[in-house]
Amino acid sequence: MKKIFAYLFVFILAFLLSACGGKESNVTVKREDQLVVGLECNYAPFNWTENSPSPYNYPINNAPGKYADGYDVQIAKAVAASLGKTLVIEKLEWEALIPSLQAGKIDAIIAGMSPTEDRRESVNFTDAYYRSVHVVLMKKDSDFAAATSINDFAGARIVGQHGTVYDDLIDQLPGAVHATPLKSVPDILTAILGNKYDGTILELPVAIGIAAGNPQFIYKELDPGFTVSEEDVSVAVAFRLGEDDLTARVNAILAAIPVDTRNKIMEQAVDRSNAREK
Questions:
Q1: pTM (predicted TM-score)
Q2: 230, 247, 265: which is the final residue of a domain?
Q3: At what angle do helices 259-276 and 204-213 cross, to 10 degrees?
C-alpha cells in the first residue's frame, strides 16, 4: 500500500512540476538513464505539436524548436519521473513506431495505441491507461448528418487511418464504401473537407477536439454502435517483447493513477487542444 501511495505522489508531483515548462530535454544524460518515447505528435488530444514552450508541453528531441503536448505527453512525464528516467520524446510516423521500438531506437510507445492481438505478437503492452468509445466524424452539412446508428451509412464513403482499429471498424457500417486508408488524421480531415470522403471513425476525445476546433465538423455517437473488444477501446504503453519487469513496473505506476485523475488530464488536454485552434 505504501508503495502505491508513493507512486501516486510521484505522479502528482510530476504533474504539478509540468507547470514549470520550458525545460529542454537533456539528451546528454546517459542512454540508460533516458526513457525515449515515440509518438506521432499529430493526434490531438492524445498528442500534438506546438511551436513554443508552455507549462504543459515537452521538447521534441528530433524536431528542434518543436514541443509535444497532449494526454500521452502527461502520461509519459509521469512514467519517466516514476522510473527515475529523463524523458526524451521522438516524433515518428505511426507505421514507424513498432519497428523503431523493436530496433531499440525508442524505449516505449505512448501514442494512443490500442493493444490489439496482432500487435501483441510484436510488443509487450501494459494495462490500459485510457478507455474510450468510437464515433463517426463528418462535415456538418454531410448527407449523413442525421445518422444515429451504424445502419444509417449505406453508400457513405468512409476512410480510416492506416494500421488502426478505425479502419477495421468501417466494415461494421452496413453498405458503407470502405475507402483506401490514409496515413494520418490530418490527411483524412483534409480529404473530407475536400469532399473526397463522407466521414471517418475516431475515438470520442479526438472527435471532440476536432469538432470544437473546426465548426465544419460534427461527430455522431451511435446507438446501436460499434461492436468492439476491450482492446479496441483501450490504449496502452508498448515495450519490447521480453521486457516483462519494466512492463510490470509501469503497470504499478498506472494503477496508482485514479480514473478520475486520468479523465481530468484528458479533459484538460482537450481544452488545450481546442484553445490552440482558436
A1: 0.80
A2: 230
A3: 30
**Cα–Cα distance measured from residue 97 to residue 120, given in angstroms and rounded to the nearest whole number:** 14
- Residue 268 sits in a domain of what CATH number? 3.40.190.10
Residues 163 and 259 in one domain: no
In this structure, the answer to whether residues 40 and 121 fall within a common structural domain is: yes
For 240, the grid coordinates are: 519490447
Kind and range of the H or E run holding 67 = strand 67-69
Domain count, the chain: 2
> Per the structure block, which three cell numbers stand in for 179?
475507402
Residue 220, SS3? strand
Phi, psi for residue 159 in degrees, rounded to 5: -120, 140
What are residue 157's phi and psi, to 5 degrees? -90, 105
Per-residue pLDDT of the chain (278 residues; tens, 9 = 90+): 444 444 554 555 455 444 444 455 545 899 999 999 999 999 999 999 999 999 999 999 999 999 999 999 999 999 999 999 999 999 999 999 999 999 999 999 999 999 999 999 999 999 999 998 999 999 999 999 999 999 999 999 999 999 999 999 999 999 999 999 999 999 999 999 999 999 999 999 999 989 988 999 999 999 999 999 988 899 999 999 999 999 999 999 999 999 999 999 999 999 999 888 66
Tell me how far CA of residue 131 lies from CA of 73, 98, 109, 231, 236, in angstroms: 16, 21, 17, 9, 9
Helix (H) or strand (E) holding 102: helix 97-102
CA distance 76 to 253: 11
Q: Do both 202 and 252 map to the same domain?
A: no
CA-closest candidate to residue 110, choices 35, 167, 163, 50: 35
